Amino acid sequence: MLGFVKGLGVTLGQLPKKKVTLEYPDVQPEWPDRFRGVHRFIPDLCIVCNQCARICPTDCITLSGSRDENRKMHIETFDINFEICILCDLCVEVCPTDAILMSDTFELAVESRNHLKLDMQWLVESEEEYEEKYPDRAPKLEAVDVAEKGEG
Ligand code: SF4
Ligand code: SF4
To answer: Distance, CA 80 to ligand 1 centroid (Å)?
Structure first.
């Protein structure tokens, strides 16, 4: 009986306190700026240097590109296998043009593991949604002469 009263006391003591839980997913937490969610990818900034794929500890990035008639590199395919990505941020750290960044998107529940192999089209659509949500975080493409950087 004494235990019951003590437990009731603890419960009643919590009632006036501020709630720390949220009604997720209807209410989303405020994620910190440095939250590591799935990647943002901005193809116009990518110079196909392959550094992100080379540094990736789990080999989950595969990409390909080609040169145009002016010898400038253009990305053609960019795939990330989120089944094995550990969201370590190394690819973001190493990217010289900020073509790959981290977002606050993390809801990737799918029915098949194969659906976690996401391609450039998915990443671009995800980036569009991100920029709609955070217009002030859209890349300033005019500030970087990407084509010049890709010249080699
Ligand atoms: S976050 Fe880490 S594991 Fe994921 S793609 Fe980038 S380097 Fe690879
Ligand atoms: S490191 Fe950046 S610029 Fe280089 S291939 Fe990866 S995303 Fe593109």
So the answer is: 8
CB 85 near ligand 2, within 6 Å:
no
**Closest atom of ligand 1 relative to the 61 alpha carbon:** 5
Residue of minimum CA distance from atom 7 in ligand 1: 56
The H-assigned helical ranges of 15-145 are: 51-55, 90-94, 120-133
pLDDT digits (tens, 9 = 90+) for 67-76: 999 999 999 9
Q: Is the pLDDT of residue 142 over 70?
A: no
Q: 111: which 2 tokens?
A: 């029915």
Alpha carbon separation from 92 to 21, 34, 67, 68, 108 (Å, rounded): 32, 12, 23, 26, 20
Give 118's strand partners: 80
Whose CA is closest to atom 8 on ligand 2?
Answer: 46
Domains and CATH numbers, the chain: 21-149 (3.30.70.3270)
pLDDT in tens, 100-116: 999 998 888 899 999 99
Give the nearest ligand 1 atom to 59 CA. 8
- pLDDT at site 145: 55
Q: Which atom of ligand 2 is nearest to the CA of 45?
A: 3
Q: How confident is the model at residue 28 (pLDDT cuts 50, 70, 90)?
A: confident
